[in-house]
Design a protein that fits this description.
By secondary structure, the chain is of the alpha/beta class. The strands form 2 sheets. Strands 1, 2, 3, 4, 11, 12 and 13 form a 7-stranded mixed sheet that branches. It has a 6-stranded mixed sheet with strand order 5-6-7-8-10-9, with helices on one face. The chain is built from 6 helices and 13 strands. It has a single domain (2-204, 234-260), classed as Metallo-dependent phosphatases (Purple Acid Phosphatase, chain A, domain 2). 26% of the residues lie in helices and 27% in strands. A hairpin with a 5-residue loop joins β12 and β13.
């Protein structure tokens, strides 16, 4: 059976959540996708996730929310991730951290899908070795399903590409998040693993990575601290649609997705 999964990049603030409400379910239907993974680490005011913003993303049509280095920016996040395991934190964070870094979930058709969230180490906050963590978690989840998805949240493109090659033939897809810029390198690797370096940003693109251009420019040209408020214009939902053979767990196709907002509510 052919399985289609939609993966979406970092949701930034209210504009990102709004386009999910407007467009996600229609996009899932149009693409024939029966499962959706959304990175939500910037959902609450551009940094972190809260109970309300997490619920908004799930209600919009996401099945699983992944996060990253900003996961603990909101004080309620620890309790939220402890209670709702559909919201993941990176699996290679300190094992004493709240929440879980991976899980097995079901599609609308009852197909079991494993999702793993990882955090890179290059130019990022300290974390355990993501490569070692990936191998351990993949070995564990492979006992439950042959369909495995990896969100590698990190800064360096080389680190993401290395993860793709490490896991080629062992997982269905490796997709990067964090940089907020969608890359044009989507492909299916020789072993049958779909790969893209970054899904891009679900949020306002008339901006600098989702933040008001004037505020960021003031900061970088003066060296003075500024409040990086979330921008508003040119809201897009960015990610990739991945086609997987559920019998083998191998990907057969990956295609970038960009959906623009009709108008602001």
């Amino acid at each position: 059976m052919e399985l289609k999964i939609l993966t979406l990049g970092d949701v930034v603030g209210k504009p990102g959540r709004r386009i999910l409400r407007q467009k996600l379910r229609d996009t899932l239907d149009r693409l024939g996708a029966t499962f959706c993974v959304v990175n939500g680490e910037n959902a609450a005011g551009g940094s972190g996730i809260t109970r309300d913003t997490g619920k908004e993303i799930l209600d919009a049509g996401a099945d699983v929310i992944t996060t990253g280095d900003h996961v603990w920016k909101q004080k309620e996040a620890a309790n939220l991730l402890t209670e709702d395991h559909r919201i993941l934190r990176p699996a290679n964070m300190n094992p004493r951290c709240a929440g879980v870094g991976h899980g097995v979930f079901e599609t609308q058709n009852g197909v079991r899908v494993g999702v793993v969230n990882l955090l890179g180490r290059v130019f990022m906050n300290p974390a355990e070795d993501p490569f070692r963590a990936a191998e351990q978690v993949v070995e564990e989840l492979s006992k439950e399903t042959n369909i495995l998805l990896i969100d590698i949240h990190c800064e360096a493109t080389s680190e993401k590409i290395a993860m793709g090659w490490l896991l080629d033939g062992k997982v269905s897809a490796v997709f990067g998040t964090h940089t907020h810029v969608q890359t044009a390198d989507e492909r299916v690797l020789p072993g049958g693993t779909a790969y893209i370096t970054d899904l891009g940003m679900t949020g306002p693109h008339d901006s600098i990575l989702g933040r008001r251009t004037d505020r960021v420019l003031d900061a970088v040209t003066t060296g003075m601290p500024k409040s990086f408020d979330v921008a508003k214009g040119d809201v897009r939902m960015c990610g990739a649609i991945i086609t997987i053979d559920s019998a083998t767990g191998c990907a057969t196709a990956i295609e970038r997705v960009v959906v623009r907002e009709d108008k602001e509510e």
